[in-house]
Amino acid sequence: MTLYSQPNAAPPVRVMVCDDSAVIRGAVARMLDADPAVWVVARVANGQMALDALKRMPVDVLLLDIEMPVMDGMIALPLLLRADPDLKVIMVSTLTTRGADIALRALRLGAADYVPKPSAATGDEMFRCELAAKVKGLGRMRHRVARPAGETVALRLRPAAIVAPRLLAVGSSAGGPRALFTLMQGLGRTLSVPVVLTQHMPATFTPMLAEHIGKLGGMPCAEAKDGEALTAGRIYLAPGDRHLLIDAARGGLHARLTTDPPENFCRPSVDPMLRSAASACDGRVLVAMLTGMGQDGLIGTRCAIDAGGSAVAQDEATSVVWGMPGAVARAGLCHAVLPLPQIAPKLLEMLRMPRA
Predict the structure, then answer these.
(1) Residues labelled as active-site residues
(2) pTM of the shown model
């Protein structure tokens, strides 16, 4: 049994909103100001104004638009991080292929996360919830909130499975892209099993995410195609707006894509991927649950564990939102709950360890 402390109450997260649209600035500020844990301290119209404001006031989290006059987000990003290396920057991207590519490049350059700009600036409850969760999670990481002695939560850990996995299945959501970059780089160039991955992300973003993972990590990565055979040492990403299921056919594992209804308000969803993987692999599944809001993946992980698999979850301190990994950790489904940099070595150890 491992003990984890609960965080102290944090001071309000100080946020700057940088967007050339006054309508967007106002709408986003109103969304965030409705949360007592968030304080919007500045609204500015371009990157140069953000740099100037940062010199005058402390800021924890900056929402940075990409396309702006005078100084755009990509030019401003390295200058902002040079001025405050611990600043948490959330890129605000349009829902286009170009916007996705720029946002993911920004993550590789030091941005902490991204949000796709909503088509309407107001009334988008899912956008508001996602934005608030990311802002508060990154604010907690920025403040490195102290944990009081004696205030702990016991997490029940379980032994690893005794059979070798046939598949590594990864789930992630809020904060996931950067976590995935770290994980996939840590896994190296070759694995003895295929990797399947579901990240909550719009359809315009998933092709770019696959491309960036393939460039950063050592293994090839692409969106999964319906019916294709899953090959060891390759990463298969669930396309946006499609559930990725795993079938056992003709002696191997194959991908199946569906437009079945969303689960946990998501398509793709982690749960159907894990349920189908547990069945197709006769339980020989190794699950990695990374940062994300909500509980998507909890039911699927339980199916994998009940069938004989194993699970590893990201810890609270390194998660932007400890929803998905926290749910499986609190349920006692994990073999290990680890900081993000330690997850890849643990997975490699579990994949390489001889099994009875």
Answers:
(1) 173, 200, 296
(2) 0.91
